[in-house]
């Protein structure tokens, strides 16, 4: 009690300061009244007003310069009193400053009674152009600001429909209100009450540090797993290479002794340098009796060819696996699902808890990454319906939704599953979440747009889009300027495809789609520019261009490339880690679920992958982001 009395004045002063800061006006009046009645003194050190007279004068001068159009005074005050980290790093401040430059650039056009002074107007326009080329260039990829980069080059902006809103009084009033709110927020934040500072310093910052360290630990574990997999692959290749090298050395020693090396033997050694996937075709197509063939093949083995090995893994007791997946504990189920995903063996999937649900989604996504997995799961639409339901309902776990979405996107490589997804209205769900792309993770955004494009390549998908043409076109045009450039090919492909529908073309012309597209031509790279030119050509076409609308009435699978695309994100942010003495991964499978060896290591002969997509036209075939990046379109 003695300690409280000794510091009572300071404590009461802190309370008063916070109530004043938080604008609890009635509470503050009651508090001061009661302190006065009880004779409680308030500390003078904390009783000063939070409103700094200098900051108030600055705000008045800044707003006066805004109203009078004094550009030089305004931006001098702006740079002197607004800290550089806020001006350069805060998105709200950057956007506000952009609009303020527009305000001063067109001020004379709005407020001159007659013809504005040409010299003064040219100076303002030149100042605005300099801003666009320097600091303002950071917003050039944002759809909201892109049209304004043409403002300095328009002879009469007041008559241009794109800038009509700028010359209305309401636009200036709204901008001034935004400026006032920004100033109030900034100077309020800069005078943080001491009570709040003490709270942050005493524990809150520690929590943030712990959370940051945990995230770093998770990321380090993920990288460690990736590097371990790479190490295992390199080690296996090393052992194979050592074996072949030993045989070649023995052969060289034999030739010194006068023994002959047959072409057949040389053929068998060279073929062992290649994966099982290429073994059969090489054995029948290469003539090893021709001079120089061996050295040529050895050089070719050094080229970065995408190979696929079939590992010789122990078979498992699947009946016991099924039983434990149904009746086992949630932790055992999660470890089994994790181990099966790492091994890529299709199994029955059951999930109840949140953790098991996530690992089920990871496993299905892994299956969908394999051509054989997609072929197996496509036999029934039951798995597809369950995934669609999980996608729309999952809101607790981002990783679960990402993996469900990834699996559905890979399912969209197969035409029967495309048809089912279109009929189930998945296009409408995708359009709805893509209205706010900044709220999505990079994975969710990329796979959502890629899935939308695959569905829009079908006539049924285009007709679905025609029902909400305005919304679809707005979402896609907004995505054109998104900072994630990985989605651009899919956005272009979707736009190009749906514009083959006359009603959508008409809607696009009405909303000025061509002007929007031409803005991106100025900022895009060569490939992006070529694709947009194709889209504009499609937009202005009176009849369908040749080859645009393909026949998709049949449900055969001839258009799917037979390749696998396993992505690193499948192992992202693992939730479970084995404790001391707890089995996981291959050890769990081979220790508790070992069966009879049935895998002979023979590879099923696969179809050849397609030609790498790199043409100037937008995508016209279904793809998945993993396969598209590696150069193998589906």
Radius of gyration, CA atoms, in whole angstroms: 33 Å
Runs with pLDDT <50, length 5+? 46-51, 275-311, 345-350, 545-551, 557-562, 597-614, 629-634
Residue share in β-strands: under 5%
Distance between the termini: 76 Å
Which outline best applies?
A: extended
Helix content: 55-70%
Mind summarizing the main beta sheet? none
Count the DSSP helices.
Answer: 31
SS elements, strand count: 0
Helix/strand-derived category reads mainly alpha
Integer average pLDDT: 75
Protein name: LisH domain-containing protein ARMC9
Keywords: Cell projection, Cilium biogenesis/degradation, Cytoplasm, Cytoskeleton
InterPro entries: ARM-like, ARM-type_fold, ARMC9, ARMC9_ARM_dom, ARMC9_CTLH-like_dom, ARMC9_LisH, LisH
Region (Disordered): 551-574, 605-634
Q: What's the gist of this structure?
A:
The protein is built from 31 helices and no strands. The chain has 634 residues and is mainly α.
Keywords, separated by commas or semicolons:
634 residues, 31 helices, single chain, mainly alpha
Explain what you see.
This protein is mostly helical and 634 residues long. The chain is built from 31 helices and no strands. It has helices at residues 2-6, 8-21, 25-38, 53-68, 71-81, 84-89, 91-105, 107-111, 118-133, 169-189, 194-256, 263-271, 276-285, 293-300, 318-327, 330-343, 354-368, 371-377, 382-393, 398-411, 415-423, 426-433, 442-456, 459-467, 469-480, 488-498, 502-510, 513-523, 526-539, 585-592, 625-630. Helix 17 runs parallel beside helix 20 (398-411) and helix 23 packs parallel to helix 26. The longest helix is centred in the middle third of the chain and has 63 residues, at 194-256. The protein starts with a helix and ends with a helix. Mean pLDDT is 75; it is low at 46-51, 275-311, 345-350, 545-551, 557-562, 597-614 and 629-634. Keywords: Cell projection, Cilium biogenesis/degradation, Cytoplasm, Cytoskeleton. Interacts with TOGARAM1, CCDC66, CEP104, CSPP1 and CEP290. Interacts with NDUFAF2. Residues 421-540 form the LisH domain. Residues 551-572 have a biased composition (Acidic residues). Residues 551-574, 605-634 are annotated as: Disordered.
């Amino acid at each position: 009690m003695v300690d409280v009395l000794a510091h009572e004045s300071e404590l009461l002063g802190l309370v008063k300061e916070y109530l004043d800061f938080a604008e609890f006006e009635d509470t503050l009046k009651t508090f001061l009244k009661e302190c006065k009645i009880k004779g409680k003194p308030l500390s003078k050190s904390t009783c000063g007003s939070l409103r700094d007279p200098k900051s108030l004068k600055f705000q008045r001068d800044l707003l006066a310069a805004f109203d009078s159009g004094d550009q030089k005074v305004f931006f001098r005050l702006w740079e002197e009193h607004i800290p550089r980290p806020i001006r350069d790093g805060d998105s709200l401040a950057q956007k506000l400053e952009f609009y303020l430059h527009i305000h001063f650039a067109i001020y004379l056009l709005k407020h001159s009674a007659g013809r504005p002074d040409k010299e003064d107007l040219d100076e303002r326009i030149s100042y605005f152009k300099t801003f666009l080329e320097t600091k303002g260039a950071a917003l050039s990829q944002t759809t909201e600001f892109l049209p304004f980069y043409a403002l300095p080059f328009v002879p009469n902006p007041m008559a241009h429909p794109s800038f009509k809103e700028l010359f209305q009084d309401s636009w200036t009033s709204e901008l001034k209100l935004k400026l006032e709110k920004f100033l109030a927020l900034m100077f309020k934040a800069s005078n943080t009450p001491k009570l709040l500072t003490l709270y942050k310093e005493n524990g809150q910052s520690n929590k943030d540090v712990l959370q940051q360290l945990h995230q770093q630990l998770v990321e380090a574990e993920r990288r460690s797993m990736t590097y371990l997999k790479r190490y295992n692959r390199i080690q296996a290749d090393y052992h194979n290479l050592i074996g072949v090298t030993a045989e070649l050395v023995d052969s060289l020693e034999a030739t010194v002794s006068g023994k002959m090396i047959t072409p057949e033997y040389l053929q068998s050694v060279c073929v062992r340098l290649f994966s099982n996937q290429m073994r059969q075709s090489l054995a029948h197509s290469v003539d090893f009796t021709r001079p120089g063939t061996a050295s040529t093949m050895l050089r070719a083995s050094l080229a970065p060819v995408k190979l696929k090995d079939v590992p010789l893994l122990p078979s498992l007791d699947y009946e016991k696996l099924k039983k434990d997946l149904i009746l086992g504990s949630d932790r055992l189920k999660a470890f089994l699902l994790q181990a099966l995903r790492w091994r890529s063996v299709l199994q029955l999937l059951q999930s109840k808890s949140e953790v098991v649900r996530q690992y089920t989604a990871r496993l299905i996504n892994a299956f969908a990454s394999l051509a054989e997995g997609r072929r197996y799961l496509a036999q029934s639409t039951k798995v597809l319906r369950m995934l669609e339901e999980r996608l729309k309902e999952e809101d607790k776990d981002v990783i679960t939704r990402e993996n469900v979405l990834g699996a559905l996107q890979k399912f969209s490589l197969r035409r029967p599953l495309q048809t089912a997804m279109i009929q189930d209205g998945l296009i409408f769900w995708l359009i709805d979440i893509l209205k706010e792309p900044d709220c999505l993770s990079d994975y969710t955004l990329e796979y959502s747009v890629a899935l939308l494009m695959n569905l829009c390549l079908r006539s049924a998908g285009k007709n679905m889009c025609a029902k909400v043409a305005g919304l679809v076109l707005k979402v896609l045009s907004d995505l054109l300027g998104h900072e994630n450039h990985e989605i651009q090919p899919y956005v272009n492909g979707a736009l190009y495809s749906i514009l083959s529908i006359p009603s959508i073309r008409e809607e696009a012309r009405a909303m000025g789609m061509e002007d929007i597209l031409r803005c991106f031509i100025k900022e895009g790279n060569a490939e992006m520019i070529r694709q947009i030119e194709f889209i504009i050509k499609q937009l202005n076409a009176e009849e369908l261009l040749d080859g645009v609308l393909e026949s998709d009435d049949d449900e055969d699978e001839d258009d799917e490339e037979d390749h696998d695309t396993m992505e690193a994100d499948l192992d992202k942010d693992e939730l479970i880690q084995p404790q001391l003495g707890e089995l996981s991964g291959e050890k769990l499978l081979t220790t508790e679920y070992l069966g009879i060896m049935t895998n002979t290591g023979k590879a099923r002969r696969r179809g050849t992958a397609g030609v790498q997509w790199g043409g100037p036209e937008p995508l016209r075939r279904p793809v998945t982001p993993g396969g598209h990046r590696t150069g193998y379109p589906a």
